[in-house]
Design goal:
This protein has 341 residues and is α/β, with parallel strands linked by helices. The protein contains 12 helices and 12 strands. 38% of the residues lie in helices and 20% in strands. The strands form 3 sheets. Strands 1-2-3-4-5-6-8 form a 7-stranded parallel sheet.
């Protein structure tokens, strides 16, 4: 498999007239302002570090790309398309809002060679969307997804965990929707409270209660399982770690962890193991040998051996051994149990 590299161009808040309660793109991306003259130096600087043969994708992130000034959008696409035609990049993607998708916009994106469109599909619940001040409805999400897929683009869905008014049922429904519309990939973002947002004010007033880390991990693992079993590739779980996510000047509250993806995937593996043990009615005192996919040993064991410890405590297992096997598909396990005699 070829190595894949993204070259991100962040466009914080440009094109987005809406202020979602959770949003502070300047903090999330670490980019406070957009400067046109910096675009080509960023691309050239990144390309200088890319090994030959690498699949290199140019990605417009951080705002509502299809809602920015039309001339600016086309200028940016022209630059990207130039690199695409030269063979210096292999693909182009952008992220945007569902209500900024229509046939005219899709025609423009196709003309300039965009392959993948990521949509903010934070929730399918209109109540949650209203509480989060998203400024669009679930109907807008459904229409946009259908248009994108029927136009031949790859579709990515970005969902959130723990939004105001959201319960796990809403998040399960959102993951199921993303899978049902034929999304190719997804991102799962547990909600973090940043300063200088409405959500921060809500949390300070006690109107909103951020999720505890364990709750965020468990709920994210449910969504991850639904997407993974449906064949939707989960690109990221949690925000990209940076100083902005840990500084008291920017971070206020919420499930902020540098290894959120590792925790969530570990939780998912534990659910697979525990479900299998329950179905097989493995008795107390049994010894287990769990076979993990190659490269996933630490995730199956769990951070700080959490999963092994839980198996010993919750199922009364006497011993757990975990090893890798090339015969085990990713995100599955094989369990051999030796019952106590």
């Amino acid at each position: 498999m070829k190595k894949h590299v993204n070259i991100p161009i962040f466009i914080p808040h440009l094109g987005c007239p809406n202020d979602c309660v959770f949003c502070n793109q300047r903090t999330i991306s670490g980019v406070k302002e957009f400067h046109w003259e910096s675009v080509i130096p960023i691309i050239e600087g990144a390309l200088a570090t890319v090994d030959p043969g690498t699949e290199t994708e140019l990605a417009f992130f951080g705002g509502s790309f299809t809602g920015i000034d039309r001339d600016l959008m086309i200028n940016l696409l022209s630059v990207a398309n130039g690199y695409l035609k030269q063979g210096r990049i292999t693909s182009i993607r952008c992220s945007t809002r569902p209500d900024y998708i229509n046939t005219e916009i899709l025609d423009i994106l196709k003309e300039y060679g965009v392959d993948t469109i990521e949509l903010g599909l934070q929730s399918v619940s209109d109540g949650v969307l209203i509480s989060s001040r998203r400024g669009h409805t679930f109907a807008d999400e459904a229409i946009a997804c259908a248009l994108i897929k029927s136009s031949g683009f790859r579709l990515g869905g970005q969902m959130m965990i723990g939004l105001p008014g959201a319960g796990i049922e809403d998040e399960i429904a959102t993951a199921e929707f993303i899978a049902s519309v034929g999304a190719d990939e997804a991102r799962i973002y547990p909600t973090i409270v940043f300063r200088d947002t409405e959500l921060c004010h809500m949390a300070a007033q006690g109107v909103y209660k951020p999720l505890a880390l364990d709750d965020a991990v468990a709920r994210s693992a449910k969504a991850f399982g639904i997407l993974t079993k449906a064949g939707v590739r989960v690109l990221r779980i949690g925000l990209c770690d940076s100083e902005n996510l840990h500084s008291s000047d920017t971070y206020y509250a919420g499930p902020n962890h540098a290894a959120m993806g590792e925790l969530v995937i570990g939780e998912y593996y534990y659910s697979l193991i525990s479900d299998s043990l329950s179905r097989q009615a493995i008795g107390s005192g049994a010894r287990l040998h769990i076979y993990a996919p190659m490269g996933h040993l630490s995730k199956v064991i769990g951070q700080n051996k959490k999963n092994k410890i839980r198996l010993l405590q919750e199922f009364g297992i006497s011993d757990v051994r975990v090893s890798e096997s090339s015969d085990i598909p990713v995100f599955s396990v094989l369990i051999e149990a030796e019952e106590r005699k």
